[in-house]
Amino acid sequence: MPKTNEKKNPQQDPSVKQLIDALNEDLAREYQAIIAYTVYSSVISGAQWMNIAAELKKHAGEELQHALIIADQIDYLGGMPTATPKAVKLSDKPEEMIRFDLDNETETIKNYRQRVKQAEAIGHYALADQLRKIIAQEQEHQHDLATALGIEVPHVFSEGA
Length: 161
Ligand SMILES: [Fe+2]
Ligand SMILES: [Fe+2]
Fold this sequence. Notes:
Elements: H1 3-8, H2 14-43, H3 50-76, H4 94-121, H5 125-149
Helix pairs in contact: 2-3, 2-4, 3-5, 4-5
């Protein structure tokens, strides 16, 4: 728990604090995505993976935009944005790297859908709108990765948005 949270807002509403903590988990996942897409897009080789490697570079830039939005929102709510990413798995097999990305995107979408509900429950509608736009991009990422693997896009129906 960052000490600065307490300093900034000593009488923070518990539901706002919960939202800040959850957004910091989301931010840590965005950092993880930036790192994974940066590393994987550089090391993936083989003719059949060249298109997706170029896509991964675009994803890296989009994940950075998401991280900037989430960090600003955490600050706006009176929290301190985390500086620590979730761990990035490594592999020397292109297919495995793309699978890691796909699993992370699916996890990210589940979390953001939950976060939209959480934000709306306490009246943060503008934040919910920002999150919806991010979800739409994460779904595109998920689609690109599933297509590269030649599989169906995993469904995320557990948390409606
Ligand atoms: Fe993202
Ligand atoms: Fe993504």
